[in-house]
From TrEMBL:
Transmembrane segments: 12-33
Protein's recorded name: Uncharacterized protein
UniProt GO molecular function: oxidoreductase activity
Keywords per UniProt: Membrane, Oxidoreductase, Transmembrane, Transmembrane helix
InterPro entries: NAD(P)-bd_dom_sf, SDR_fam
Organism whose genome encodes this protein: Physocladia obscura
Gene3D superfamilies (alphabetical): NAD(P)-binding Rossmann-like Domain
């Protein structure tokens, strides 16, 4: 792209605001990265004999996490929608780590029936599950609704993972019981985002379900990708809190986290949706975003660190407990309502 091209770029106020917000957040993260980089469980944590299930392990921080779990000796299952791409990644990680126990399971977050089928396929192969990582997600929309009629980012980022978690809950409980319900022996890790703290604290549940099969039926709040994304990520945080309550004393710990402002493929999708030019994407990735390797560490920390075994229900960033300042985390009635409605929405899948 030449200088003459750059001078003709015209940005809307929304685009300028997004660039500024991401830039500031990324710069703050970049200046404080060293603390997160110190976590390296190799040599101290052995996952031999442990089973890990992760969604979205074919790219981004999920791909790095698959490699990390494999390096620690775990048997790893990867749920993703693109078989060819994921199996190529799996073969690459097998060659790099020497761990041959990495397997693909098909599942598409946009279609709840495929997530239910993925859970059934896993349960047909394994009787134990030690670590469930709900990592996959989307940052931008190319449509308003999922195939099942839910607001698309709520459905893909939150509800599909809620369904997966519930369908695997008995297996997680059985595993924890076999380990004498030791705190943190079994873990559920929800990869959320700092954007969860910035959105509205009250959820309009009526806006999350499509009415009359009308593809254009969408509430004004969800007219931007970022507001919708933040709401979906807040729901992950609230669900984690409820899981910690439901699973108290079971030996299963639940965590939500912000991985950092990571230079992953999700930005290519999200930024393209608001028309930001490639030059700006390159700038953001080069100067203010952290790498996928760095961004993977908080997920790994919550998954395996002994330091957090007794800290179920909390929110993490840079391998440290953080306060999520959204008032919704203190609204127990809404947390309960989200759980109840989610259970109702998934009952037929």
């Amino acid at each position: 792209m030449g200088l003459e091209t750059l001078t003709t770029i015209r940005l809307t106020p929304l685009q300028i605001g997004i660039i500024a917000a991401v830039g500031v957040a990324g710069l703050i993260g970049w200046l404080t990265i060293p603390k997160a980089l110190k976590f390296d469980p190799r040599g101290t944590i052995d996952l031999s004999g442990k089973v890990v299930l992760i969604t979205g392990g074919s790219a981004g921080i999920g791909k790095v996490n698959v490699r990390q779990f494999a390096e620690l000796g775990a048997k790893v299952y990867v749920i993703a929608r693109n078989r060819d791409k994921t199996e190529r990644v799996i073969e690459e990680i097998k060659a790099r780590t020497g761990n041959k126990n990495i397997f693909f399971i098909n599942g598409d977050l946009d279609k709840l029936e495929t997530i239910s089928a993925a859970a059934k396929e896993f349960l047909a192969k394994e009787s134990k599950l030690h670590i469930l990582v709900c990592n996959a997600g989307s940052g931008g929309r190319n449509k308003n609704w999922t195939s099942n009629g839910f607001e698309v980012l709520f459905g893909q980022n939150y509800l599909a993972h809620f369904l997966l978690t519930i369908r695997l809950l008995d297996c997680l409980k059985t595993t924890a019981n076999s380990l004498k319900n030791t705190p943190g022996a079994v873990r559920i890790v929800n990869v959320s985002s700092a954007i969860s703290a910035r959105g509205a604290s009250l959820i309009d549940f009526t806006s999350l379900v499509q009415k009359n099969n009308d593809p254009n039926d969408i509430e004004p709040f969800f007219t931007t990708d970022f507001s919708s994304y933040g709401r979906s990520k807040l729901c992950q945080v609230l669900s984690t809190i409820k899981l910690s309550q439901v699973l108290k004393d079971s030996g299963i710990s639940a965590y939500s986290l912000h991985p950092g402002v990571v230079a992953s493929d999700i930005w290519n999708i999200a930024l393209d949706r608001v028309g930001i030019q490639a030059a700006f994407i390159f700038t953001l990735k080069s100067f203010v975003m952290i790498t996928e390797e760095q961004g993977s560490l908080t997920t790994l920390y919550c998954s395996v660190s002994k330091n957090v075994a007794n800290q179920s229900g909390l929110y993490y960033s840079k391998c440290t407990v953080r306060e999520n300042k959204n008032k919704a985390i203190k609204n127990q009635a809404q947390i309960d309502e989200l759980w109840e409605k989610s259970m109702e929405w998934i009952k037929n899948y």
